[in-house]
Write a structure and sequence with these properties.
six-stranded mixed β-sheet; 14 helices; Nucleotidyltransferase, domain 5; alpha+beta; 2 domains; three-stranded antiparallel β-sheet; 14% strand; 355 residues
Length: 355
């Protein structure tokens, strides 16, 4: 294959899911010689949930629970993605744990289930997958959020973290995406979208916040992650010219026990301002939280004349009514949330090992 290649090119997209769908589209359109597996699209495929004691999720050429789907490639991609969030079995019940159990994709494995609690855990995964394939994704997320809060109140932090990870993964794979057809029409679409979003954000800042930022090059966003105050962490993510730049990312382990997110933000602002020279000066700072959290940053950064804006949950569309500006702000906020959560999970696992 390498010897036959005459060149290489790429189309930049904005998420892994878009990359997956665009790849499938290109294979279908161009029928490349070496993608022979993905080109096999001659027969429709169904997703079937069996009626076993421990239901299996399998694919079938005959009628199943969901389908038919014209693309087997997309069916298997969807199932692989869902299996990472809600592990399930695709094999008949046996004696020993299957190989997928060892890598967390069949967990709990029906071959190891001996008690009611573990059985219910497996059946809950199947129930959630069934709802998702039926189009009830919002209901699944809502139920998981309710369960996470209950586990947190009961101080079952490990279980709460697992549920939170499922919620975040679901939100990621169901986020609004750009059609793969648009990337085919304009290979520079990602760059064009980025520039349009930056201009839209500048306009919103001028109209809604009376902020005239001519060069909106560097944007920083801060978020706090914890479960009922346990092992609180915070993140700083940096976007340069509308794109994330992980070389400027920073994470913070909260040094002292804090009673509120406001106190955490106060500590982070104090620690950040000490690195104005070596970390760089932002043109705009977003704080994921209410005005009280943003005010802690304003107190510390007042002399630097850096605009600081709170991103209040549930009010994003009111604060950033322009859709393109909102897309950029949401992407920045989600990235700060992901990075903070990742560090919190790391500390959580280390703490469990010490115990």
């Amino acid at each position: 294959m390498v010897s036959e290649a005459t060149g290489i090119s790429f189309i930049r997209v904005t998420s892994e899911l878009e990359a997956l769908l665009l790849e499938a589209k290109l294979i279908k359109l161009m029928q490349p010689k070496y993608n022979f597996i993905a080109k096999d699209d001659k027969h429709t495929l169904y997703i079937k949930i069996t009626d076993d004691t421990f239901p299996r999720i399998i694919t079938a050429r005959k009628e199943g629970s969901f389908g038919p789907f014209p693309s087997s490639y997309k069916v298997y991609s969807v199932l692989r993605t869902l299996r990472r969030i809600f592990p399930y079995s695709d094999h008949k019940t046996g004696i020993k744990p299957c190989i997928y159990n060892q890598i967390g994709l069949c967990n709990p494995c029906p071959n190891t289930i001996k008690d009611a609690k573990t059985k219910n855990s497996y059946l809950k995964n199947i129930k959630n997958i069934r709802k998702i394939l039926s189009g009830n994704i919002g209901k699944v997320i809502k139920n998981l959020e309710k369960e996470m809060k209950q586990l947190s109140k009961s101080e079952k932090y490990e279980e709460a973290v697992n549920i939170r990870n499922q919620i975040e993964s679901l939100k990621y794979i169901t986020q609004k995406r750009v059609s793969e057809n648009l990337f085919l029409e304009n290979p520079n679409l990602s760059e064009d979208i980025k520039n349009e979003e930056l201009k839209a954000l500048q306009n919103v800042l001028l109209v809604n916040y009376k902020l005239s930022i001519i060069n909106l090059r560097r944007i920083e966003c801060y978020d706090v992650s914890h479960i009922s105050g346990y092992l609180a962490t915070a993140s700083m993510v940096t976007f340069i010219n509308g794109l994330e730049d992980k070389s400027f990312y920073r994470r913070f382990k909260i040094k002292n026990s804090k009673n509120s997110d406001v106190e955490v933000m106060s500590e982070i602002a104090e620690r950040r301002v000490k690195h104005i020279k070596d970390w760089g000066v932002p043109d705009l700072i977003f704080v994921d939280g209410g005005e009280s959290q943003a005010n802690e940053f304003k107190k510390v950064f007042d002399k630097y004349n850096i605009p600081i804006i709170a991103i209040t949950k549930g009010k994003e569309e009111l604060d950033f009514p322009n859709r393109k500006a909102l897309n950029l702000v949401t992407r920045i906020r989600d990235e700060s949330h992901r990075f903070a959560k990742k560090y919190h999970n790391l500390l959580f696992r280390k703490n469990l090992i010490r115990i």
